[in-house]
Amino acid sequence: MDLATLGEFGLIEAIRRRARVDRRVWRLGIGDDAAILRARPREDLVLTTDALVEGVHFRWSTTDAVSLGAKSLAVNLSDVGAMGANALGCLLTLGVPPGVDPAHLDGFLAGLLRLAHASHCPLIGGDTVSSPLWLISVTVVGSVARGRALLRSGARPGDRIFVTGELGGASAGLALLSRGGPSSASERRLVARQIRPRPPFRAGAALVRARLSRAGIDVSDGLAQDLGHVANESGVAAHVDVARVPLARGLTAAASRLGLDPLALALAGGEDYELLFFAPPRAGTAAALSRKLGCRVTEIGVIARGSGVHFARDGSDYRLESAGFQHFKPARANSEK
Amino acid sequence: MDLATLGEFGLIEAIRRRARVDRRVWRLGIGDDAAILRARPREDLVLTTDALVEGVHFRWSTTDAVSLGAKSLAVNLSDVGAMGANALGCLLTLGVPPGVDPAHLDGFLAGLLRLAHASHCPLIGGDTVSSPLWLISVTVVGSVARGRALLRSGARPGDRIFVTGELGGASAGLALLSRGGPSSASERRLVARQIRPRPPFRAGAALVRARLSRAGIDVSDGLAQDLGHVANESGVAAHVDVARVPLARGLTAAASRLGLDPLALALAGGEDYELLFFAPPRAGTAAALSRKLGCRVTEIGVIARGSGVHFARDGSDYRLESAGFQHFKPARANSEK
Q1: Which residues in chain A are classed under CATH 3.90.650.10?
Q2: Is the domain B3-145 a CATH 3.40.50.150 member?
Q3: Assigned CATH topology for domain B160-334
Q4: Does B59 lie at the interface with A, CB-CB under 8 angstroms?
Q5: How many CB contacts within 8 angstroms connect chain A with chain B?
Q6: How far is residue B311 from each of residues A19, B170, B238, B321, measured CA to CA in Å?
Q7: In A, which residues are within 8 Å of B147 by CB distance?
Q8: ipTM score here?
Q9: Are the CB atoms for A84 and A216 separated by under 8 Å?
Q10: Which pLDDT score, from 0 to 100, does residue B1 have?
Q11: What is the largest CA-CA distance in chain A?
């Protein structure tokens, strides 16, 4: 797509043609002052937004346009899923330079729209602006049965702590990219976790449907930090056995080559976009939950009265140095150790 | 607010404390993976997003932080209002440099949150990111009685064309800023229309409540262009008597000083954020509508069978050269004449 030829309205029309919108849910998609959603009775709507900025969240030297398009939606699907909601649609604010590479623009939209289709989350609106650098802000609206959302404040003493998939891969991938790139198929898989996360975005809604959980959060800032949010908001203590935390495949070898601690990456590294959820014993074992959710599930600890996040290894306290990613903090606080 | 001290979570917490959320509408605001909206039966929800980028949409040399905060929400309230909807809440993506001026950040949030409060559109979520330049993307969700939204496709032959307020002020203000700034109180008012638009964001909902209109659009790209959207989507022709178009106060004098055509600014200049709406004769006169909507209303033309936008002056065709603002087009096409 050549922007100089298309202009803003041409670009919007090209996107509109490629967005496939379910008219039972959306009375109106792209093409008016706003999109119109037909709200259904007995549902709550969830709304979330997440942004990616060129040079801050991604670099063209280490990502491809299709992955970037998919990631910009995926990180929001992760948030909506962590509320136990099904995505209904998304809005895209896209800022690109006037002389943008048409292949970048095409690839970006292809990646975003393909995931939008696969996740039944059509692009229903947005804003395209000129900008000296790429900036992407996606808002997703989703639906959850009234009063049944998974909340950070929903964890209760006695709940078991579960996490989907595996951890540490995305931050190992980032470390590999910043140190010369991956050197094996196994390391390339870790890099792929960083540039193209695949959150289990249907798992949260499955938990709500089966009434198995009231609390969840996605692992975006790092397990320690995200667990801290839940402990704080729920007024409870979270106890984690670090030996049970599922390490990403290939993480140990890659961390060893890089001189990093794989466990620190798994506990404090961000951007894994797995689902961390909390469920009472009656919800069943991790194996049973895994079958119900259609993805790997691991039990890593328990919620108790008290406060804070407590890691233990072999029965002793395990002290974690880093506390995950924060924007605006001095660079050293966010760098890998 | 000093970002280096606060960090990302400190900033979010500071914003959260200042956002005043109505718990009857929002089950949850800032503080989880997503906000939760309690959808009501018999309503449609509208969603829109609009972005401002430093150096493209604003410059710190010509705006102040409070105005910028208000404008970033106002342009979205304008879209929601033009759907005939009442705003329910907003999400803010805010990208600022790590060393951002605390006064800029404070002022921006004060301006946005003050208008959020005045318009009953609380800040219920968002994303704060580090960025080399300021970037602001606001998403607003609103509510309108089911099936009653004002659409671009809703104009019918015989409808009268009405516009609120006055036109051309914002683009005259922009021209003044680019040519040394305003030189009188009257010119300062035009500049204020550019840096701090005040859309009549309740007028659209009032039209829907009184069942007076089915079609509307906000004047953001310029009257000619926005009217063209309605003519296209409704499959009708729009006939405007340019002598009736309400020129902004002080526009003629300022345009004369700048060597510009005031009528061209009023017809093709963008960013006035007035409401353009369409109503059958039974809706009453402009004076009656003005009383009902609580703002100035002018009848400027009529919808007929056919296509396109047709301007006339003294009974003859009036030809307009420019066609309003488009991003990504060569600069000359967007510059004032």
Answers
A1: 160-334
A2: no
A3: Phosphoribosyl-aminoimidazole Synthetase; Chain A, domain 2 (3.90.650)
A4: no
A5: 237
A6: 35, 21, 8, 12
A7: 27
A8: 0.90
A9: yes
A10: 65
A11: 65
